[in-house]
Design a protein that fits this description.
The termini are far apart. The strands form 5 sheets. Strands 1, 3, 4, 6, 7, 13, 17, 18, 22, 23, 24, 28 and 29 form a 13-stranded mixed sheet that branches. Strands 2, 12, 14, 15, 16, 20, 21, 25 and 26 form a 9-stranded antiparallel sheet that branches. The chain is about 10% helix and about 30% strand. With about 525 residues, it is mainly beta.
């Protein structure tokens, strides 16, 4: 008697490996550093390598930072408030809310108000809606020479391992206030200012208004005085690379062994074949910048803007480091994620105490693309660690029946990218008192076009929404005009790197002010959209 066809099919299916499942790779790469004296509480700067982590953009689930840090307020020992998170993070990377992504990273500021209720990523870019802004007005534009797009600062397309210098130092723009938005809640005077050092722009860019932080105390007066408007920075920060999603797939062969494949993931390498990811981590006290600028604003000699080395502490790296990268199914609990055998192919490397990176195991990684090393794509799950471990294997060691060799990780088909735009209407702070010149257009390498206008500094929407009186805004205007007259975009403010080359910003963002608006005016983006609209 012949076996029914259906039974044959079932028997065959029972012996065939399952089709690959979509999974993901995520985790942290950990950077060990020596401690910094607690007195260096006036910000930091770093040089971080910028490069295309993946060889193609994998869609808007992709979110990862490159190497960076989290700057929290400093509190007395054993007196850190409970259930209170606020910091400056951001940095280089890709985010799920990026509208115009490419394989080149962007830069955002990443100011986080109390427990993520408010987030400010740049001028006009943050959390909330224009009806309920929770950070959209949190950053004021300072420089007249650099446009900050609504989707984040663009690096020049094609950057590959160059160092991007940035940091935050307090500037003496504001005065402390006993009331916030009419309530008996204090606001501090810290104006944490973003400084950049790139090959085509150097200097201060913009700053978080103190009101961005203190407005949280209107909801909860207990947090007054506990945030970055009032407190110095904790110099002993974590330096890591946070990866939240890299596409991957896993499959089990007919013998029950489980394999995985990860989308091609690369790191930059120099002429010696090693990688530099971080350089010159520096913490500051107020001698570095604040004291000299305040004396200048108070009638003293012009401050050069260059960091005073007497107020700078360079943090050295330790000779180790680790990884929490893992491959797992979405929804897996943190405590159940298996480890990735990172050190089987990457060895921490510090060519000097100020520089951190990796050496690579050439038996496991590949170097087919100039200037890049590609990490292992294939892994086998086995014993090791608390929850097992993914160990790299060569492609030939992966059974063909798993189907992993056919995975291509093509980007998903997504809806057209919508414009970013600021508040519409004629009776808003975008129109009253309004700009002095515009509109102008900047065509960026990410395929978008930015519409922007020139505003008098004190009349930009972020300042008009910063809980300042007219007199306070005019006092700020005087200080900013002093900066515009004396601090140019082509000289050093942060100490330059001693290794590598500086990354470039997208040159379309580097501006020359219109005639007559050179002093006291700033460019403000109001709309960003695809230069060539996507087909629906």
């Amino acid at each position: 008697m012949r076996t029914p066809a259906l039974l044959v099919a079932c028997l065959m299916a029972a012996t065939l490996p399952a089709a690959p499942q979509k999974v993901e790779m995520a985790g942290y790469l950990l950077v060990p550093t020596e401690r910094v004296p607690e007195t260096y509480d006036a910000g930091f700067s770093i040089y971080a390598a910028a490069w295309p982590l993946l060889n193609q953009y994998p869609g808007h689930r992709f979110q990862t930072g490159l190497f960076g840090t989290w700057m929290h307020p400093q509190y007395p020992k054993d007196a850190k408030p409970k259930d209170l998170y606020n910091d400056i993070e951001g940095g280089l990377g890709w985010w799920r809310d990026t509208h115009f992504p490419t394989t080149t990273p962007k830069f955002i500021m990443g100011g986080v108000g109390v427990n993520f209720y408010d987030i400010a990523n740049g001028p006009g870019y943050g959390r909330g809606t224009w009806e309920d802004p929770r950070g959209l007005y949190g950053v004021a534009q300072l420089t007249p020479w650099l446009l900050f797009p609504l989707d984040g600062l663009n690096l020049k397309q094609g950057v590959n391992g160059e160092l991007f210098g940035y940091g935050y130092l307090p500037m003496p723009f504001a005065q402390p206030k006993t009331k916030t938005e009419g309530k008996d809640v204090p606001t501090g005077d810290n104006c944490w200012t973003l400084f950049l050092n790139s090959s085509n722009f150097k200097g201060p860019v913009c700053f978080f208004t103190p009101n961005f932080w203190s407005r949280a105390a209107l909801r909860n007066p207990a947090v007054a005085g506990q945030m970055l408007d009032s407190r110095g920075s904790d110099p002993n920060k974590h330096f890591q690379m946070e990866t939240q999603y890299v596409p991957a797939a896993q499959a089990t062969d007919d013998k029950g062994a489980t394999y995985a494949r990860v989308a091609p993931t690369s790191f930059p390498v120099g002429a010696d074949g090693t990688t530099v990811v971080l350089h010159r981590l520096t913490s500051y006290d107020r001698r570095a910048m604040y004291d000299g600028v305040k004396a200048w604003f108070d009638g003293g000699p012009v401050a050069s803007g260059a960091v005073n080395p007497a107020g700078a502490f360079i943090q050295n790296f330790k000779n180790n480091g680790g990884s929490t990268w893992s491959i797992y199914k979405q929804g897996t609990k943190r405590e159940a994620k298996p480890g990735l055998a990172w050190k089987s192919f990457a060895t921490p490397h510090s060519p000097d105490p100020m520089t951190y990176g990796y050496k690579w195991n050439d038996e496991v990684v590949s170097r087919t693309t100039p200037g890049l090393v590609t990490l292992p794509q294939y892994y086998r799950f086995g014993t090791g660690g608390k929850n097992g471990q993914w160990t790299p294997v060569k492609p030939a060691e992966v059974p063909a029946a798993t189907g992993l060799a056919q995975m291509s990780f093509e980007p998903p088909v997504e809806k057209p990218q919508l414009p970013r735009e600021t508040q519409p209407g004629e009776k808003t702070t975008w129109k009253i008192p309004g700009p002095k010149a515009g509109p102008f257009k900047a065509f960026l390498g990410d395929g978008s076009v930015v519409t922007y206008y020139w505003y008098r500094f004190a009349d930009q929407p972020a300042i008009l929404n910063a809980d300042l009186t007219s007199a306070e805004r005019e006092a700020l205007q005087v200080k900013v005009e002093k900066l515009h007259r004396s601090w140019t975009k082509d000289r050093d403010y942060l100490a330059p790197p001693t290794v590598g080359k500086l990354a470039a910003l997208d040159p379309a963002q580097v501006l020359t002010p219109p005639k007559g608006l050179e002093i006291g005016y700033v460019p403000i983006a109001t709309r960003q959209e695809l230069a060539v609209p996507a087909k629906k």
